[in-house]
Amino acid sequence: MARGITEDEVWKACDALLLEGARPTIERVRLKLGRGSPNTVSPMLETWFKHLGGRITDPGAFAAPLGTPNPVQLAAQHLWEVAQAEARRDFDARVTDSLAAAVANVEAEKEKARIAEAAAFTASSKATHLQADLDQLRAAVDAERLSHQAIAAQLELVQRRCAEFQDEVARAFRQAADERVRADHAVLAADERVTSAERRASMEIERERQLRAKADKSSEAIARRFEATLKEQVAATQRWQAADERLMQQQSHAHQREQELQAAAQHQDARIRELESALGEARMARSRVEAQDDLVGQLMARLQPKARHRAPSTQDTSRKKAKT
């Protein structure tokens, strides 16, 4: 059955390798002992390296026994010096590697800090520009809202005036209808008077025919009355024509005014549609700006932990520089 190795055996093998001028490793120690697993040799070798510095400072740790011949003592002294030189080179190499790694870490942290500062400055500048754009959009939206309100008020005023004009037109139509009715009544009355006058004239003519010899003067009076009746009929006809012309003029004016109001209303409707479209675009722009604000807020929230972490990193860098 294979026997295990002890720490004393590993240390003696390491001392022998060091005296031979070779660097003690796991494989060299196993070859020196002829047995032992790497998992067993590794912690013992680490312990030997930890205690090597204290042993090097002890002049008698690797000294030859008393009574040793002079050549052997010289050889042991040479091996001791070789071991010291090897240990110093190994220690210097480790110190150099550690310093290089520390310097590399410091430079990497500096570069990370510079990148973080540049990103923070860029994000802050972008946030400032976005805020300015948002303020301009808000001012434009407010101006459009005020303009829309003013146009809505103007449209309401125009609609109210249109309603008033429609009322005026309706009143004019009613007045024209009343005038026409009165004119019709006047014409009917004139016709009746003419008819009556004609009947009377016929009767008078017949009577005059019968009494012409007796009443020449009476026929002249009848003729005058007939002429007066005709004049009344002509005057009634002229009044009816004048009333009809006034009605046609009022209708033409009302139709023209109605067309003007319809054109004004169509123009106002087109302007309202344009304002509503502009308002919709402004709202979409405002939504995009709010989304960009949210993105900037998320970016600033992500950058704040890095900014807080950057301050202690800078202090650690200063401490490392001071130690160096």
Based on DSSP secondary structure assignment, what is the total number of beta strands? 0
SSE pattern: HHHHHH
- Strand content bin: under 5%
- The helical percent reads over 70%
Structural class: mainly alpha
Backbone CA Rg: 63 Å
- Ranges where pLDDT stays below 50 over 5 or more residues in a row are 64-70
Within the CATH hierarchy, at the fold level, what is the topology of the largest domain?
Answer: Helix Hairpins
| Main sheet record | none
Mean pLDDT: 76
Task: Give the domain tally.
Answer: 2
C-alpha end-to-end distance: 54 Å
Counted by DSSP, the helix tally is 6
Task: Report the CATH architecture of the largest domain.
Answer: Orthogonal Bundle
Please write the CATH class name of the largest domain: Mainly Alpha
What does this structure look like?
The chain is 89% helix and 0% strand. It has 324 residues and is mostly helical. Helix 1 (7-19) packs across helix 2 and helix 2 crosses helix 3. Mean pLDDT is 76; it is low at 64-70.
Question: Layout of helices and strands, plus pairs?
Answer:
Layout lengths: L6 H13 L6 H8 L4 H13 L1 H5 L13 H142 L4 H108 L1
Helix pairs in contact: 1-2, 1-3, 2-3, 5-6
Concise description?
The protein is 89% helix and 0% strand. It has 324 residues and is mainly alpha-helical. The longest helix has 142 residues, at 70-211.
